[in-house]
Amino acid sequence: MTKRILAAAAAGVVLTSGLAFGTLGTAHAARPALRTTEIVMLHAENGGKASGGAELSYSTQTGITTVSLRVSGLTPMTMHPAHLHIGNSCTANGAVKYPFRPLIDASMMMSTEADANGVMMASSSFSGNFATQKLYINVHQGPTLKTAAQAKPIACGVVM
Ligand SMILES: [Cu+2]
Fold it and tell me: What whole-number distance in Å separates Cα of residue 139 and Cα of residue 155?
């Protein structure tokens, strides 16, 4: 974890949230990369005001991809399921591949909640390299996915 934060600090600006938004594509040219990192920006969908970003990082040492998601502009204290979906565009309508989980409440596996400021943070991790998959990140209206209105995407970003 310490190593990851240091690497992010070297790559660019580290926000107080812990998410780093710096140089895109931080693979090193001179040495074999121990880690592949990508920053994905999420834009509002369906007339919403939410936006955000995600940092995906694959470790060649562990073989695991970790994803940190931060979304702002949400209605405070509302639930918003979020997933990595299969597909290479926000209109792909692909199946859910990996869910996000909230950083605080581990019991709510499929939903994440915006705080009093309308900010939601969540994470995901999975075996394998994100860079070899076609994925996009969807944040849904919520609070569940039981109806089309609730499943409606309010923020999206494509993992390139
Ligand atoms: Cu989804």
Answer: 5
Residue 6 has pLDDT above 50, yes or no: no
pLDDT at residue 27, rounded to an integer: 56
Answer yes or no: do 60 and 107 share one domain. yes
Find the mean pLDDT for residues 134-144. Answer: 95
Tell me the CA–centroid distance for residue 67 and ligand 1, in Å: 15
Say how many domains are in the chain. 2
What is the rounded distance in angstroms from the CA atom of residue 61 to the CA atom of residue 32? 12
Range of the domain at 128: 37-159
Angle (CA) 39-159-115 rounded to 5° is 60
Ligand 1 midpoint to CA 159 (Å) = 14
Cα 46 to averaged position of ligand 1 atoms, centre (Å): 15
Q: How far apart are CA 56 and CA 25, in angstroms?
A: 10
Residues 20 and 41 in one domain: no
Q: What is the mean pLDDT of residues 105-121?
A: 72
- Residue in the structure block whose two tokens are 């995600």: 54
Mean pLDDT of the chain: 82
What element of type H or E holds 40?
A: strand 35-44
Residue-level pLDDT at 14? 40
